């Protein structure tokens, strides 16, 4: 057979916009809280549109031709009006603001004069809401600088390397990536809405054990360099803790929290759901015990440091404050009441805790899961939220609901079988709704709070995909290994799929347990690499076995203390076997598996635990030895350290079972999953006398930024050679994959 790498390359992330149009709407709200702009990406070009839901209108946000001409004259660079060099704007009735390569511009909407406003603050500086200050860290202390005068003010003076202000824990700080990009990481802090205070923490890392990296090929040449990180692993006696502080600007009056220091093994408190009150006088933050068996919400008085417990949950295994792996989704109201998410009855639901105390009021109930609080209308006493479990035959698609804060009036605002991703306007009157399914391209509209469509915005155009021979994925439901539990997945097809042919099967795996792998909506973030592999003549499968989130707590807890099952690999084997029984085009004599990070662990685990089922595996950046992974993640999902319990999940113990072809990939600059994970598996494979392949990439960090094209091609080569049984094209160049700007923006905040 012949394989077409050029077609596979068209599915890589940077080429997505050339194949799919109108699939994304990211609203930028105007000051009135109802109107918004967004960048419409259509076949005819890109245009910023202004939406007025009250009038049901969609109009150009400004004159693109005039702005392009003026910007070109002012900047000296060519500007295409159909492809303006920015992706978001700040619009009012008089001017439009935007950034081009870090330089801020405004354009007067009267005469279309474009004026440079200088460069935005660097990544290492956090601007205040009023735009008058930037906060930054210097020599472990917190400083601010006045934007207009440039005057600097030191706010703290007792910071040291072991007790540093606004520092991100090393385990979650992409320091190697920052270094390779030539930037300094952002400070961990939160400005108050009135710009008068800064909430931050002082991180205690004194006496912590270290982990090490060798930069074998430094960017500037010279000798290899040693990198050292504070990196707690399961069972360590001490882990990083964070003391909360509130600092006034510009005088530096410091108020220390009267609460206990917070565990900060992985995530700093500012990234774990911390929020200011609207007036800026109260700070809300979450606290857990080390093993996440308790989740507490506290209120901190910014003037005194006094703390007050608002709500709390306990569980003998683990408390999950969010079924999707993010910060807790609870909400503090202006009167002090709290809308609180809890799985205390076995399902994820909302409860109202009154400010004056007493028993919480249950707002939702049933065998379904609240996924997100979208808006709380305090005046009318309702909460708007997304929930799954209401679509017959599939527990994952999200629907939109409202309910009263008194526990009555549950109302379903969307009533279909699609997955709905929604954003509510600041005014709370409208929501921007993106409705899709794995095989149904997105339709984006504006709805009112009765669920009625008031403006239709975009219908995704996938004509170029279809012209390539693309076929929409198939949502599948199969039985787990117990023969009873239903699990769900997605089937992806080769280009110009012919059901009369026989195709090798490749599974793309990510086991969680913090997120589930198989999103029900169209175009999840991993689709690019999945479709690229499918384009080379493979059936690609994704599945969520028992132990992944998004359903009942009991379903999720199947993986607690049993991470070695890697998202229930035996469920995956059972599911793929069931699929092939009714799909003769799936050739189970040729099965591969690949994944990254936790997926790299699961890919290796799959081929080692099931050597007669999986024949080829590609495992990149895998955490193969979880007793040496970050304590803040491993102890959350595996539980307190027990030597036997943790060693049982290490892939090196199964090295002797390898029968197929295994390709291990790791960056030697990975400061999240350190390369020793892969090297210990390599050591075990060598001791077991096994043949395998290894790619160690100098300087590459966990996300393999800058090397995605090379790793993609090597992965394609491996599957083509060992599953198709043919040599890959020798003359196809490595895909030139540019740094994903949007991915970097999301990572760096």
UniProtKB/TrEMBL annotation:
SUPFAM superfamilies per record: alpha/beta-Hydrolases, DPP6 N-terminal domain-like
Domain Dipeptidylpeptidase IV N-terminal: 123-442
GO process annotations (BP): proteolysis
Peptidase S9 prolyl oligopeptidase catalytic domain ranges (all copies): 529-724
One Pfam family matching this protein: DPPIV_N
Molecular function in Gene Ontology: serine-type peptidase activity
Signal peptide, first to last residue: none
Name of this chain's protein: Dipeptidyl peptidase IV
Organism in which the protein naturally occurs: Sinosporangium siamense
